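Issue 218. Parser rejects a valid record. Input:
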Amino acid sequence: MLRDIEIEQRLGQQLPLDALFSDELGRPVRLGQYFGRRPVILVLAYYNCPMLCTQVFNGLVSTLRVVGFDAGKEFEVVAVSFDPRDRPRDAAAKKKAYVDEYRRPGAAMGWHFLTGGAGSIERVTRAAGFRYKYDESTGQFAHSTAIYVATPDGKLSRYFYGIEYGPRDLRLALVEASSGRIGSPVDQILLYCYHYDPKLARYSAAIMGMVRFGGATAVVILSTFLTVMWRKERRRQRYHPGPLPGGEEGGPGRGASSLPSEAREEGADPLRSAERRH
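Output the parser choked on:
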């Protein structure tokens, strides 16, 4: 059985947005109704799972409370049950529990819990590379755990395995999936320095990106320092001019001191100047 249980990354795979489901109120919906404007965190679970699925939701809520983005504003959370026996009442109970735990205003508008028939479930799980097996002896499903980040147009962008998810990794995945429409300049810098590693299913430091960023930062700092020093020197020369040629000091009245000595003497004693001329 275990060889039939795996999650195969299918980055760039288009999700079947026309797949039919029911929401937690029992209303018929298409998967695509939750796409189009924001990136989506997709959760494949079943609502009566006694252990792993609950851990997935717990881990997701804990991470999202740290990430800083708000469900319903910057992204959507869409949970799809892969158990066709789950009903809207099961979805509604699960939604209430985790919206209450999330503790953000308006969170109910950003969390969606869907149920559906075997055909629609198969289409979504196959697109995501999610393989699981029903164990008749226990009445439970054997499955692996992950959450998936999809772009607003419904293409799978990032996978995060397990039941705990790094806040930095999930935030960067949402920023990247949104094509920069959410996030801050700091997020863009981090994306320049960190790249998603499909083998590790997390973001790792991109050495060349960090080197380039460090070099660019050094150039900016040096340019700023030189500009500041140049301006300070200009101000110093303006208020404290240096000596004029010949060793005489500049400053107010310097024009008189630069006249020839005879002219200065004549200016000082007009009578003596007149006697010399005669």
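Fixed in the parser; the record now loads. The chain has a mean pLDDT of 82.
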